[in-house]
Every structure is written in C-alpha cells, then in structure tokens.
Specification:
Blueprint (H helix, E strand, L loop, with lengths): L1 H26 L9 H8 L1 E3 L5 E3 L9 H6 L7 E5 L6 H15 L5 E4 L3 H18 L1 H4 L13 E3 L5 E5 L13 E5 L14 H7 L9 E6 L14
Parallel strand pairs: 3-8, 4-6, 4-7, 7-8
Antiparallel strand pairs: 1-2, 5-6
Helix pairs in contact: 2-4
C-alpha cells in the first residue's frame, strides 16, 4: 500500500513538472502583446515604496516620458535619446518600465548598462529585485532555478535574458541583444577601454535584430556643449 502511494505521488510530481515545462516552452512562441509601452507599464509594473508597499506606476506624474517610452517599440527608430534633469522619474519610466514591458509583453534579451559596477549592483538589488517581487506578472515569469538569477544576470521562464552591466568592453562584446539601455549616460567615460564611445558600442549589439533592435540613452545634461551649431539630421 505504501509503495503504491509513493508511486502515485511520484507520477503526480512528474506530471506537474511536465505541465510546467510545457507552459514554459509554449511561452517562447507567443507573439508580442500589441499595446503601448506606457499602457503596459501602468498595467503590469508595481513601484516599490517603504514598509514593503507598492503602487501602480502613474503616467500622469511624469507625462513627459510617455512619448519616449512608446517610441521604444517603434520600428521607425533604432535609438531613443532622452535628456532631462535628475530626479524626474526618467529612469523609472524609461529603464525599469522598458524592462517590465520586455519581460511581460515582448520577451527578448536585454542589456542595461549603469555608470559603474557598483551602481549596476545597486540598481539590480535595490530597484529591480523589489520591483520584480511586487509585480505579480513579472514575478511569475522569473526562472525558478537559483542558478538562473543573480545580481547581474536574470533568466526568465521563456528563455529570455536580462543583463545588468557597466561600461566595459567585456560587457559590450560578443553577445547580441535586441534591446540595450544606457542610464546616466553623462557619467559614462567618453571612451570605453579605448574602443570608442558607449553609444556606438551599444548600438552594435542590436544590429542582428535589424529594425527590431533598439538602443536607449537616458541622461541628465551634465556636460558642456562642444558643438553649438549641431542640429538633428
């Protein structure tokens, strides 16, 4: 009798594992959800607050980032550059919001580059980890395997990958990413390890994806203007 019970439990466990694996595999073939990034962020991303609380992201608090956010999913552009004063919600909407959108609505490999290794670690631990935990739609998409999730690398059930790095040629080399985001760009070195500027290096990582590739630069106006006659082409 005991042997039969163990066998039934084992079969049920195997069946449950097979169902979970099947769901993970099927999610790889789902088409992107056709909705604006700002709408998706409002629907799926929770913003952590003190005492373990969280709130819905509200576009009305930072309406000036909405257009830039929605441009990130447009195939008419290969880059979005947003410059605004510090502490104006641009990182929350553009960086964290774009991460949320890519996880839930359009799973794809993404690279986020902070200004230093310490800041990359801080962003991952103090912002993203809390946001993932408070956002059910994101939390259930994280891989259940411990080895798939660490401070700088996050893997999801559908196989997509998020890397949180810093300006170094090792981070900008080899791997291809559909989406690359550079945050606090005014604090980046003008030349990354003698290989060129970070924007050019980042943009090369998305070329494999052609018109689907996107590079985002988010910055504060922290440097002197060197060419007063420059105009957008």
């Amino acid at each position: 009798m005991m042997t039969v019970t163990k066998s039934k439990r084992k079969n049920r466990s195997s069946l449950a594992s097979a169902v979970v694996a099947g769901c993970d595999i099927s999610s790889m073939f789902r088409p992107p959800r056709r909705m604006k990034i700002s709408d998706a962020v409002r629907k799926y991303m929770r913003v952590p607050r003190d005492a373990g609380n969280s709130v819905v992201w509200e576009s009305t608090l930072t309406p000036y980032v909405v257009e830039a956010m929605n441009c990130l999913s447009s195939r008419s552009y290969d880059a979005v550059v947003f410059v605004a004063p510090a502490r104006t919600g641009k990182t929350l909407g553009l960086i964290d919001g774009w991460i949320s959108y890519n996880i839930v609505c359009d799973p794809s490999d993404m690279l986020v580059v902070q200004m230093t290794q310490d800041k990359a670690q801080e962003h991952s631990k103090r912002r993203l980890a809390k946001m993932f935990r408070h956002s059910p739609a994101i939390a259930r998409r994280l891989s259940p395997h411990r080895n798939d999730n660490n401070v700088h690398d996050k893997t999801f059930r559908d196989g997509s990958f998020l890397k949180i790095g810093w300006p170094s040629i090792n981070v900008f080399s080899s791997s291809d990413f559909k989406c690359v985001a550079l945050t606090d760009y005014d604090r980046f070195p003008e030349d990354v390890d003698g290989e060129g500027d970070a924007f050019s290096l980042a943009s090369k990582r998305t070329t494999t994806f052609m018109s689907l590739g996107m590079t985002l630069v988010e910055s504060s106006p922290g440097r002197e203007i060197t060419d007063t006659k420059w105009k957008p082409s």
